[in-house]
Specification:
The protein is an alpha/beta fold.
Length: 314
C-alpha cells in the first residue's frame, strides 16, 4: 500500500489503514501538519490506497497527480488562495459525473487557504456528501480551518519525523557528489520536516537560500554588520519570486536559531549559545511580520541588521 511508503507517523498510518480495511473511513478526512511533514504526499497515498488498494499503474498515476479519479483543488497565484469558483466546480462535478467502480476522491490541498466563500461552498457538500466520494483535506493546522469545516472531518495530525529518521530519508535522496554532511544539517535545520530537506537537496537555488540563512546567523553571532547587510541585500528585490526567497531565508534563519535553542548541533550550523539565539528571534519575527505587511524590504533589512548586531553583542 502507498501509505507504507510514508515516513514516520506510524500510529496515524496504522489508523488509516485499519479504517480502510474495515470500510469505516469517514467521508471526510483532514491531514494536518506543518510544511514539510508530508501532508500532501500522505493525502495522495491515502487516495491511492482507497481507490486502488492493490496498487498498479492507476495508483502510480494518483501519486504523480495525474489520475482522473482524484479531483484536486489547490490555491492560485502568489497568495495561494483557493477561489470559491474552484470549490463550486468540484461540487458540481462530483454530483453529476459517473463514478468509477472504486469511487472517487476529492483532494483539497492546503485547505487553510480557503477564504470564507470557498469554505462555505465546501461545507455544503460535506454536509450532504455523495456516496462513494472521499474528501481529503490537507492543512497546516486544524485551527486554520473554519470550525464548521474542521468539525465535519476526521482529524489525523502529522508530526515531523525524528532527526535520525529525517537524516536517513535525506541520505537516500542525496544527489551524486553532494556534500555528505547535508542530510544531518538539513534534518536539524528543518527539525525533522523531511519535505523541506528534500526540496533543498533537489533544488540548488533553495539550498543556496538555506546556506545564506546559516551565513546570516554566523554574521549575527560575530556582530558583523557589514556581512549581515551584504547577505540581506541580495534579498531586497521586488521581482517575481523575490518575496518567496525572502520568506524562505527568514524561515530558515528562524530554523537555525531554533536549533540553537534546542541545542541541536550539525556540521555547518553555527555554535550559537541558546541565550544569543533567544535574543535574535524577536527582531527576526518583527521583520517577517513587517514584510508580510508589504513593508519595503530595504528598510526592514536595514533595521534588522542593526537589531541583530546589537542582539548578538549581548
Amino acid at each position: 500500500m502507498m501509505l507504507d511508503t510514508f515516513a514516520g507517523n506510524r500510529q496515524v498510518v496504522a489508523a488509516l489503514q485499519t479504517a480502510l480495511r474495515a470500510g469505516t473511513l469517514p467521508h471526510a478526512v483532514l491531514l494536518a501538519g506543518s510544511n514539510g511533514c508530508g501532508r500532501n504526499f500522505a493525502a495522495r497515498s491515502l487516495a491511492a490506497d482507497r481507490l486502488f488498494p492493490a496498487g498498479g499503474p492507476a495508483a502510480d498515476a494518483i501519486m504523480r497527480g495525474e489520475s482522473p479519479d482524484v479531483l484536486t483543488v489547490a490555491g492560485e497565484g502568489k497568495s495561494g488562495q483557493i477561489p470559491v469558483e474552484k470549490v463550486r466546480a468540484i461540487r458540481t462535478e462530483v454530483h453529476r459525473s459517473a463514478l468509477g467502480e472504486a469511487g472517487r476522491v476529492v483532494l483539497i490541498k492546503d485547505a487553510h487557504n480557503m477564504a470564507a466563500p470557498a469554505a462555505n461552498a465546501l461545507l455544503k457538500v460535506l454536509e450532504e456528501p455523495p456516496s462513494e466520494v472521499l474528501f481529503i483535506l490537507t492543512a497546516r493546522d486544524a485551527a486554520a480551518l473554519p470550525a464548521t469545516v474542521a468539525s465535519r472531518c476526521a482529524l489525523y495530525p502529522l508530526a515531523p519525523v525524528s532527526l535520525d529518521a529525517c537524516e536517513a530519508i535525506l541520505q537516500k535522496a542525496m544527489p551524486p557528489g553532494a556534500d555528505a554532511t547535508l542530510p544531518r544539517l538539513l534534518a536539524v535545520l528543518y527539525n525533522g520536516r523531511a519535505g523541506l530537506g528534500l526540496r533543498a537537496l533537489q533544488d540548488p537555488a533553495r539550498l543556496a537560500v538555506a546556506q545564506d540563512a546559516i551565513a546570516t546567523a554566523n554574521a549575527a553571532a560575530r556582530r558583523d554588520s557589514y556581512a549581515l547587510a551584504a547577505l540581506l541585500a541580495g534579498y531586497e528585490g521586488r521581482a517575481d519570486g523575490d518575496r518567496e526567497r525572502r520568506e524562505a531565508l527568514l524561515a530558515d534563519l528562524a530554523g537555525v536559531l531554533d536549533a540553537a535553542l534546542r541545542m541541536e548541533a550539525a556540521p555547518g550550523l553555527p555554535a550559537l549559545p541558546p541565550a544569543a539565539a533567544a535574543l535574535l528571534l524577536p527582531p527576526l519575527a518583527e521583520a517577517r511580520l513587517a514584510l508580510r505587511g508589504n513593508a519595503a524590504p530595504k528598510i526592514v533589512f536595514t533595521g534588522l541588521v542593526v537589531q541583530m548586531a546589537r542582539a548578538g553583542a549581548q
